[in-house]
Every structure is written in structure tokens, then in C-alpha cells.
Amino acid sequence: MRKFLERLFEHLPLQFRILCRQFLLRVVDLEALSIEADIPRFLGQFAGVLIMISIVNFISASMFLLSMTWRIEQYLIATMMLVAGLIVVVSWDATFPDRRDVMVLSPLPVAPRTILFAKVAALCAVLSIAILALNVATGVICPLLLGSQHSSILGFFQSFAAYWFTMVAASAFLFCSVLTVQGFTALLLPRRLFLGLSAILQLAAFGLFLGVYFLQGTITTPAAMATPENQRLLACSPSFWFFALLNQLNGSLPPALAWLAQRAWTGLGLSVFGAATSLILCYLRTMKKTVEEPDLVPGAEGLHWTPRFGSSLQTAIVLFSFRSLTRSRQHRVVLAFYFSVVFAIALALLRYVLSPVTLRPLTPDFIIPTILMMSFAVIGLRSVFPLPISLTANWVLRIAQLCPSQKYIAATRRSQLLFAVLPVWLVSACLSLSFRPWHQVAEHLAVLALLGLVFAELSLIGFYKVPFICSYLPGKSNIQVAFWGLVVVLLVLTVAFAPFEQRALSDPFLYVGLFIVLSAAACGLWAFNRHRAKSAVLYFEELPEEIITTLKLN
């Protein structure tokens, strides 16, 4: 199969092959990477994460078999659409020509359609890898569940084809829908206004995809789907459309739900047509606009006031971090992923808070989500800090390091507390207003603040650089191990800690002991980081460790 694909690729035009390879590697922003970056290994690690998710889904589906077929189908389709949506949003501007593409390729004898086809092919290749990786195991068990509804062996092949076509169609629908919105927005608006609105649309898409995934739920019986109160949800949710399409292709769809499958066909056709039309028009009309119109809007004149966050150095780094997060596309994308998880958890808590019961005791159902929100926010901001805003401008910061390294690291700590710990703590405080008694709510908020301090200090261990001014080295860490280790350890520790905290809220002596332990941990980690920072040397370029190979002649 691999040799066949290589031979097929070799028969394509040379310009298309070269551009397709380059655009495929540029799914990750090359200007943020170290010169020693291993991009294929980086993409392979993400594919490995999706394969592990597929294996977990395979084990879960095998345990339930026929008892929860509809629930499993809806879950797998929703997960596939979420992954496809996140990939498209992460590569938000990768399909459209940017200033670098126009300046480099315009003088060359390369037709705009070749650039268009190469960009679309590169993004489709990434999306295809995600589809295959996420369904490598479930693409067998789910057709078995569907094929059991047929009496012949041909039923399995029909179910197999129905499953894979539905996964590809659902991903293509979301992919083309996002491209349609982007394309027509770029056509109708001036470029400067489009760039500003594009950032808002990107963050909104992140929140929409994750919020729908976590809050939508499943409908597992034909009777529940036929009830009037669920009709609006079914009509507005594309995941239910493609669930109906899967069962229609499999021949197991109840006649009362045929209208849902029809919506899937209609939505798929409209999205593909809209994406093709918008892309063609963009490449015909916006190539010149990309060069002629500036990307940055001149600053408004008048009095400008900025708050102070300590010393002049701390204020400068905090403001630099804030402006990098709000103005840089790649930083917004990475941070939006983690904060969208926080947003989804907050929405789930809000739905729980707004239930008919007005006052309720503090339980692990509230303690666990608030701790997860705090940890995801700190981890998300810490994962964004190593990404540079402009490597070509790092020389200014290198020659301007007039203060000891510990002051720079202290400013980084302040940014972590202001942009991750404080917002989550304020959201948790607002969500806790419907819980009683008040003293337990205040005690939990105090514990949550201490946990935020502990998480912030843990994230700063070994981080001897200023945020956003050091190159990134993908492939240096094992993403699969880090991802699954984080998920497992974080969930296990949080689930184990929440009942203990609930007991401590009812026992003053136990709570005092917990408060003292967390305070000592926060202070100890702060002292450790401060001591290490005194002898730390700031670095600006991520390089792999040198490996000395000997001949072992002795």
C-alpha cells in the first residue's frame, strides 16, 4: 500500500509535490520552531495519541457490545467531529494564501490553482491521518456491532463501508463548513478587519466545538428521539444527522428518523459546495489584497494608561505576555484548547448550579471540576509560554538582560498567577454562590487558591526563560506519555483528593492540617524555585541534548 501511494504521488506534477510537502510541514508554524525541530516525529506523536484514544474506545465498546449500540455510535461520531474541528481550527489560516506565500511564490511560474490544490491536499492529508488514527481500532468493532443486525456475512461489509463513509463525511462536513465561513468572511471584509474578526471566530469555534461535545449528551432510544422536546436538538445537531446517516447506510434506521439522514446529505453537499466556491474566489480575488493591505492596524492616538504589576521589569513581562496571548494566532490556538476545556467544565457546572434545587451542600461533584479547571488553566498557560512570538527579535532581549535571572522568573510566576490562577478562582467563586454553608464554600476557595499556587510553582520548575522568546523543539518530549500520564495522574489524584477535602470541610482539625500542608507545599516550592533561579541562566534556543557515541575499543 505504501509503495502504491508513493508511485501514485510520483506521477503528480513536480510543483504540486514540492508545495504539498512544504505545506504539510507548515501545519506547525516553522517560525516558532528550533532549527533542530523534528516535525514528522512531532506529527507522529499526535497520531499516536489518537491511536491510543481509539484503543480505549475499542475496549469500552467491546465491554458493552450490543447493549449500548446507539450510545457508542453517537459517541464515536461526536468524537470524530470534535477532532476534525480542532484540527481545522488549529490550522485556521493554513488553507488560505498568506503574505509569505504571495511574496515567495508570485515571482515564480506557479499557477494559483496549484497553490490552492497543494494547500487543500496538505490539510486533507493531516485530516486523513487523524481519521485513520482515531478509528484504527473502533473501525472494526463498530461495524461488527452494526453487522450483527444483518443475517448474512455481507452485512458486515455493508456496515464496514457505512461506518467509514460516515466518519469521512462527518469530518468533511465540519472541515468544509469552517472553510466556507472563513472564505466568505475574507471575501466580504477588508483584510485588516478580517484578520481581527478571524481571531474571534477562531476562539468561538474552539468554544463551540468543545462546549457542544461536553454538553450535548446522547439519545439512545427511538422513543426518546421521537419526543417533541428533543426535536429541536436533533434538528440543530450535526452529530445526530450523521448518526442517522450511518444507520441509513447500514439499513437499520427507523423510518421516522429519515429526515435526519436527509439533513446530513444536504449539509454535506452545501458545505462542500460552499468551501469550493469560497476557496476559488479567495484565490482569484484576495491574492493581491494580501500584499497591498497591511496586516496591522495603526494604533489609536490619545492617552494610554497601563496598570502596574510590580516593578518595571515585572510590568513589562506581564504586559508582553498579555499582548502576545491576545495578538498572536498560534498562542491563542494552543491556549484556547485548554481554556475551552475549562469553559466546558464551567458550563457543565453552571447547568448543575441552575438546576431547580436552589441551595445544596458542597460535594465532590463541585470540588472535582473546580480542581480540574485550575489544573487545565495552569497547564495550558505553561504549554504556551515556550512558543516564541518572533524569533528574529530575540536578539533585542538577549542584549537587554540587565537584571538577574531570578527577577525574570518571578515576573513569569506573576503572569501565571494573573492569567491562569486568578481567572479560574474568580469563576469558581461565582459558581459556588448557590452552595451552603458559607464557611465551607470559603474554605474550599482557600484550598483551591493554594492548589493554584502549588500548580503554578510546579509548572515553573526548570523553566528558565522569558515567556514567548525561546524557540520550540517538537519531538523533544514524548507527547503520548505526557498526555496519558497527565490525564491518568490528574484524574486519579483529583478523584482521590475530593472526598478527603469534603471530610476536612466538616472537621476543623483535619481542615487546619490540610491547609498547613498545602501552604507548606506552596512555600517550599516557591523557595525551591527561587533558590534555583539565583543560579539559572536564561536561554533562548531549544536544542537537543548532545549524544556522544564511542567506538568501545577499550
User: Between the first and last Cα atoms, what is the distance in angstroms?
Assistant: 46 Å
General shape: globular
Poorly predicted spans: 30-37
Instruction: Identify the strand order in the major beta sheet.
Output: 1-2
Total number of domains = 2
List the total number of helices.
Answer: 22
Largest sheet: 2 strands, parallel
Order of helices and strands: HHHHHHHHHHHHHHHHEHHHEHHH
Q: Average pLDDT across residues?
A: 79
- The value of Rg in angstroms is 26 Å
Percentage of residues in helical conformation? over 70%
State which percent range the strand residues make up: under 5%
Give an overview of the whole structure.
The protein has a two-stranded parallel ribbon with strand order 1-2. About 1% of the residues have low confidence. By secondary structure, it is an all-alpha fold. α4 crosses α12. The protein folds into two domains: 283 residues, no CATH class; 223 residues, no CATH class. The two termini are 46 Å apart. It has 22 helices and two strands.
List the helices and strands and how they pair.
Layout lengths: L1 H9 L3 H12 L13 H26 L4 H22 L8 H7 L6 H23 L3 H10 L6 H35 L2 H25 L6 H5 L4 H6 L1 H13 L7 H28 L1 H6 L19 H16 L1 H25 L6 E2 L2 H21 L9 H6 L5 H27 L3 E2 L1 H22 L19 H28 L1 H27 L20
Helix pairs in contact: 2-6, 3-6, 3-21, 4-6, 4-7, 4-8, 4-9, 4-12, 7-8, 8-12, 8-13, 9-16, 12-13, 15-16, 15-19, 16-17, 16-19, 17-19, 17-20, 17-21, 19-20, 19-22, 20-22, 21-22
